[in-house]
Amino acid sequence: MKIGKSTLALCALLGIALFFLLTAFMQSGRDADLIATDSAGMAGMADMADMDAMMNMMPQVDADMEDPLIDPMSLSTGHSHAGAAAESPLEKGIQAVWSWPEGEPEAGRPAKLLIKISGADGLPVEKFDVNMEKLLHLVAISTDLRDFQHIHPEYQGGGVFALPVTFEEGGNYRLFADFIPSGLNELTRSAKVSVSGGSERRSDPDGSRGSDSPAGPALLAQFAGGMQVELHFGHLMANMQTGLSVTFRDADTGKPVSDLQPYLGSIGHIIAVDDKLQDYLHVHPVNAASTGPQALFGIAFPHSGTYKLWGQFQRDGQLLTIPFVVKVP
User: At 60, is the secondary structure helix, strand, or coil?
Assistant: First the structure.
């Protein structure tokens, strides 16, 4: 059987075409492997970058203060109040009306406060979620940052909360209410009040007296409840999430303290304001169930400047409210 030249040429062309097809197929497989490898590598690098960022957020504490149950990644999701900028349109419509039905408060005397929560339509918000064992947290701070209260009004129904408030000193105060309308995120609403009577700041009009005054240097260590209590930060910079660790040592022996008791469902609470009472932060620890010797918080200070912090912790049945002063670069 004779094979014509045209047939041989056709077979040769088919062979060449098959060769190129096989080569292209094999190359595409290698490219796919390379792409997959590169993607995995990039994902791994991203994970490493995220972990590096989290580790930079972690405060450095002594070895005997470390908590092996703390996950550094939890700092990125630590509880904090997001603020008005993060509120949805529905949340922005939630309003608080503050009133003193028995008259403006006077120093040293209880004055009844009513807080009515309503929606943009003017109708009362009827349902609230429990937040750290309470429906509403009320924080009252004097404008010189010397007087501080964290108290809890009782819900009366119809969107109304009520309680008597006693201001020890006269002067101007800022009030902050933290609450969660059911189905929404945690919200903060504020008001101002002027308290008459009293010593009108005890001859200390600029708040410069006392080691915990914002006018003074940073104050990151205090003695309270038989303990030395210290603050430790990760990379501290304005408008950047970082770790805030509070450590506890016995004031006499220097040994770690691990018998703290829950307060409002957590090892502790931190409330912070700037020296002009414009920035307000209320944060809870990522290791809420711990009993010490460390309470770890995630926090982001919105601006550079001076902030005063109050840490609240409980030991031996005693509530300890501990002030600190932080300078944020």
Answer: coil
Report residue 11's pLDDT band, with 50, 70 and 90 as the boundaries: very low
122, 169: one domain: yes
**What is the full DSSP assignment across 147-175?**
-EEEE-PEEEETTEEEEEEE-SS-EEEEE
Specify whether 96 is located in the same domain as 175: yes
Taking the model in full, what pTM does it have? 0.80
Shared domain check, 169 and 214: no
Under DSSP, is residue 25 helix (H, G, I), strand (E, B) or coil? helix
Are 173 and 161 spatial neighbours (Cβ–Cβ below 8 Å)? no
* Cα distance between residue 145 and residue 280, in whole Å: 12
110 and 176 assigned to the same domain: yes
pLDDT at 179 over 70: yes
Q: 3-state SS string over 92-108?
A: HCCEEEEECCCCCCECC
